[in-house]
Amino acid sequence: MDVGVVGASGYAGGELLRLLSNHPKFAISYISAGSNAGELITAIHPHLTHFKDRKFEVTDTSKIDKCELLFIALPHGESAKLISQIDPNLKIIDLGADFRLVNKGSWEKYYSGEYAGNWIYGLPEVVGSSQIAKEIRVANPGCYATAISLAIAPIVDFIEMQDLVAVAASGTTGAGRSAKISLIGSEVMNSLSSYKFGGVHQHTPEIEECLNRLAKSEVKLSFTPILAPIPRGILATITSKLDQPISITGIREIFEIFYRDSAFVSLLPTGQMPMTSSVLGTNNAQIQVAIDEHTNRLVISCAIDNLGKGAAGQAIQNANLICGFEQDLGLRNLAVR
């Protein structure tokens, strides 16, 4: 299939190119990057040696319409502007936030610009692979939203869903390529810092909407993100009070059953903790669970690669589904730890 990538100069766009270059069914026919049009791809992504002498193109809707599948990796608010100009039958995976939220009020509270509507939410392990496979346009989840939703989804019937507390650390690629003083090496190295402090991170309503699909009661999340001095990876810790008696053995069984058919999400053996280095460069998610008996709270740890399961890897997983392929096609690589 002829595939296009719009917004390929960013970190997620570069990871898309890396993964797609080895996909047995997808052939990259069009690669665009607005402000970097005309530049060599390897000038921005020097590790992508498969693309030697190839340049980023301008964003051209006539070329987009010649593709059979399109990945959009643009900043939030930009996808919606482009969608209205291209073939309505073109299969699209949007890595931005433009079509993730069902609630218009949540979009207006956490984002800027006009609400564009919503597409099916592309978290196959929670929404359902068969449901996504019926669609031609998919809203790829956010990185934090992926890690936190995967951690909580199996256990919604056993915890207080209005008492979710999540703290998650992410590598600097999660903030994009734009030049910011807070992201330069001298500021980031040897330092951890919270940001979007006080429940204002834009992935909060996305997580709540995702989990509301499963929960019997309203979902309320207090979420604090942390900037970690690493390029990529997310480690999320989520807690909530248990609302009924259950053993750790019972909890583990629930997680194992929930993810037994997943090619990517795994509950680790007792005593083994998720590590970002163990999922680096993959579409995998690692989970561990425990009960804090002192406070009667369930504690869950989840590690993903923010550019993998949190972005490009999951986008290809969704693309495989809407194109009728096995969802792990082109995504069976091991971590590079």
TrEMBL record:
**Entry's PROSITE patterns?**
ARGC (PS01224)
Q: Molecular function terms in GO for this entry?
A: N-acetyl-gamma-glutamyl-phosphate reductase activity; NAD binding; NADP+ binding
* Annotated signal sequence range: none
Q: Which GO terms describe its biological process?
A: L-arginine biosynthetic process
Q: Where is the Semialdehyde dehydrogenase NAD-binding domain?
A: 2-134
Extract the InterPro entries matched here: AGPR, AGPR_AS, AGPR_dimerisation_dom, AGPR_type-1, NAD(P)-bd_dom_sf, Semialdehyde_DH_NAD-bd
Q: Which UniProt keywords apply?
A: Amino-acid biosynthesis, Arginine biosynthesis, NADP, Oxidoreductase
Q: In which pathway does it act?
A: Amino-acid biosynthesis
Q: Specify the protein name.
A: Unannotated protein
